[in-house]
Please model this.
Amino acid sequence: MKHSDEIMVLETRRLILRQWRHEDKQPFATMNADTRVMQYMPKLLDHIESDALANRCMELINQRGWGFWAVELKLNHAFIGYVGLHIPSTDLPFKPCVEIGWRLAFDYWGQGFAYEAACASLKTGFETLGLTEIVAFTTLTNHRSIALMERLNMTRDALVFDHPRVPAGHPFRQHCLYRLSRQGWQSRQSRQINSPDK
Model:
């Protein structure tokens, strides 16, 4: 995997994926206390926990040049959540891996922002970082995230696993796994380029 000494900033038609700033922490804490946003997480995060997560995302981006980027709307510079790539530290049955993940504030759902930012993240992962595969995982009932994984052309793996950070007996402990290879990404890009609608 290629590493960058510089912090990457990704730009899409409507979004900027960038390093975190101090002023992102308040709207991030509001998100992490929203039962709609956190519906498939084991618990809501208080302000201290939310700030710690933001700081960790910031530290990892400082170390690697990439990570779970803060997502900013070009239109009004609002912070709307995070999207990006991450090397999980949790003992997962398919490690080592790089995952793609996202969490957006509820007001920004259903507008294609997660898809737009995820496509930019995948492009960076495969074309800049030289990754051979990117994975995604979520609890079995998180149908919105699963739909996004499938829209990104990710393929569901046969593996169903218990996430070690979710307590035993919790309804969200069982997770599904999705994979996307560099070859799969390239074929998807080729289909889009050659589409008669383009």
User: Anything to note?
Assistant: The radius of gyration is 16 Å. The mean pLDDT is 94. Residues 43 and 192 are 39 Å apart (CA to CA).
